[in-house]
User: What shape does this take?
Amino acid sequence: NGKSFKDCFKEDLNMIRASFPRYDEEKDTILTLEGEINACREANGEKPFAWKKGDIAAVSAYISHEGRGQKIDVKIPNEKAEAWYEKGKAFFYTKRGQLNMACADCHIAYSGNYIRAELLSPAYGQISHFPTFRAKWDELGTLHRRYGGCNEQVRAKPFAPQSDEYKALEYFHTYMSNGLEWNGPAFRK
Assistant: This one.
């Protein structure tokens, strides 16, 4: 239809990455970069991209690359936004799955240690380098793909990408890294 992503994103290209995730008061939800990429496609009469990899990760990677160096600065503007933050925080600290582990177990309590040959990274700053090209995947993948993989690794049923659970987690997880710079996309083992 002759429209582009620029028609949907009002920010300068180098500022788009830094504007997500954010609370949308009108919809009472968390807006994510990938969610808004697909919302833009649908608003322009296009089919949405698949959520975890492929074109959605490629467009997100381009936007993230252009936004390198911008500060992470997630805002919690009101009580409803705070409720989303608290929901994400609860998810991060709640144990789940057959292994009875929380995100915080690996990425706070055990960060810096190894599980098999994998170094557990600290939660602080993790978010800044997504989407990520993982050697294991042999392609770019989104943050919500990684969240699903983490759930599977603790033998919990993963939530759907862009579910309220993962959007709340992304909001909390990103807020934890306020003040750091966006530096994605990146490579991980």
